[in-house]
Amino acid sequence: MEQLELSEIQGLLVRDYKEMPFSKYLLLKVTDATKAKGYLKEIANDITSVVENNGDHFFNIGFTSEGLSAFGLHPKNLQSFIREFREGMVTPHRQRLLGDHESSDPQNWNWGGPKNEPIHLILMVFEQTEEKLDASIQKLLITFDQNGLQAVHILKADTFPDDKEHFGFRDSISQPAIVGSGVEGLERDNIKAGEFVLGYKNEYNVHPDTPLLKEPQGNMEMLPPDPDGSDQKDLGRNGTYFVLRQLKEDVDGFWNFLNEKSKNEDGSLNAEESTKLAAKMMGRWPSGAPLVKFPDKDPGGLSDDNDFVYTETDKLGLRCPFGSHTRRTNPRDNFEETGPSESLKLTRKHRIMRRVRSYGEKYVGSATQHSPVDEVGILFGCFNADINRQFEFIQYTWANYPKFKQLYADPDPFIGVKENPAEGVMQQFTIPTETHNKYVDGLKSFVTVKGGAYFFFPSITALRYLTTI
Questions:
Q1: Which of 9, 19, 95, 113 has the most CB atoms around it within 10 Å of its CB?
Q2: Which ranges in 47-129 belong to alpha helices (H)?
Q3: 305 exposed, middle or buried (CB, 10 Å; 0-12, 13-18, 19+)?
Q4: Is the CB of residue 438 less than 8 Å from the CB of residue 73?
C-alpha cells in the first residue's frame, strides 16, 4: 500500500466536514495577480489538510484553468493538465456530453457560463454556526479588496436536515474509501488512491495523468519529481480535480408528477404508492434503506446501509429496477453482462467522491408536502483524478444514455431526462415484475443546472509554489 502524504492533501477530499454544517463557496476573480499571490502565500497555512484542522473553521481552495493562467502559469505548463480541466465545462462537446441544454444551457447559468464573470478561484469556508460563517465571510470580503481578488458569486452550501436532499431522500450513503487515507469502507468500496489523488497508482495500477512543468518558472525546487521518472517537476502530486454543479430541484413538479402517476382509480392521492414509485426511481427509500433489502416498504428511521450487491439478491431488477438512479450510477457487481467479480472491477474504475450540500430553505419534500417557498437545490460536488473517465462517464454513459442494460428508452429519472425530447423520442421508467414490465411514461425533467465549473485543488506545497511564479 502506498503511503499517502496526508498533510499535503486538501481535507475535503477525505472528510465530509459534517461537523461544520454551515458553509459558503466564494467564487473569485483575480484583479491583481501580484497582490493575489502574496495573499495566497499568507493563507497557505490556513488551508485545511486531511490531518490538520486549523482551529474551529475549515478552508479549501481550487483553481479553474483560467485561474492558473491568471496567476501566470506558462501556457506550456497549463497544457500539461488534462483536457477536460483545460477546456472547462461549457464547450459545445461537453454541453452535449453532460446534457446541458434548454433551461440548463450555460447561456442561462447564474455563474460559470459564457455570459457570466470569469471564475478563477473557489474558496470554500466551513464553520460550526451561521453567525461564525457570516463573520468570516465579511472579514474575507474586506480582505479580498485589498489583495487583488473579487468575489463574483457566493454560494450558500449547508448540510441537509438528516442528510436528506430536497426531494426527500437521504444522500451521500454510498461513498468509496481511499486506500491509505485512514478511512476504511467495505472491501469493495476501498479504492486505490490514484482514482482520486494525483501521484499515486489507480485501479489500472498506473499513475493518473499529472501536470508536469514543461517550461521552467517559479521556485521549482519546491515540487517533487515526476513519479514516472522523467526529469520534470510534478505540479499535480497530492492534488485532485473537483467538479461543482449547482442543480435546482423542482420539488413540487416532481411530487405532483408521481402523485398523478400513482393516484387511486377515483383520482384521489395515494401517498404510499407515490412514495414507493419515487423509491423505485431512486433505488432507496426516503430513509436511505436500499430497495434490494426492503422492496415493499420503507422500514422507517434513518439508514446508511450500503452493504449489498445486486447479482445475488436482485439479478433481474425485481426489487431495485435497473434504471433507478442509485443502480445506474453505481452498478456494483451487476455491470452489463459481465460476471460479478469483473463487474466490481469495472465499477471501481468509475467511482467519484461526492461532496454534496444544499442551498435554499431547509425543506424536505414528500408526497404530501412538496411546495417550498423559495428556490431549492443542491450543490453537487465530486472529486476525481480523471474527470472524463469518472464524472463525465457516469453522467453520459450511465445517466443520460437511455440504452442501459436491457433498457432502450430509459434515461436516469433524476439527472438524465431531457426537457423537450425530439419528436417520437420516448422517455420512460421501466419497473420489471416477474411476469411483465410496467412503464411510467412521459418522464419530465425536474433538475435544472444553474452553474458549474471544473477546479484543480492543488496540494498545500503546490499552492505555495504557485505564489512564486
A1: 9
A2: 65-70, 75-78, 83-87, 92-98
A3: middle
A4: no
> Strand, helix or coil at 113?
coil
Distance CA 295, CA 320 (A): 7
C-alpha cell at 131: 453567525
229, three cell numbers = 521518472
DSSP 3-state of 399? helix
Query: Per-residue pLDDT tens for 310-361?
Result: 999 999 999 999 999 999 999 999 987 788 999 999 999 999 999 999 999 9
Q: What count of other Cβ atoms lies within 10 Å of the Cβ of residue 434?
A: 6
From its phi and psi, is residue 79 left (phi > 0), alpha (psi between -120 and 50) or beta? alpha
Strand runs (DSSP E) across 157-277, as ranges?
Answer: 177-178, 190-191, 240-249
Q: Is the pLDDT of residue 53 over 70?
A: no
Query: Which pLDDT tens digit goes with each residue over 380-435?
Result: 999 999 999 999 999 999 998 888 778 889 999 999 999 999 999 999 999 999 99
Kind and range of the H or E element at 78?
helix 75-78
pLDDT at res. 402? 86
The DSSP 8-state label assigned to residue 297 in this structure reads S
Which residues 6+ apart lie within 8 Å of 13 measured at CB?
50, 178, 196, 197, 240, 353, 383, 457
Q: Which helix (H) or strand (E) holds 463?
A: helix 460-466
Which pLDDT score, from 0 to 100, does residue 146 have? 95
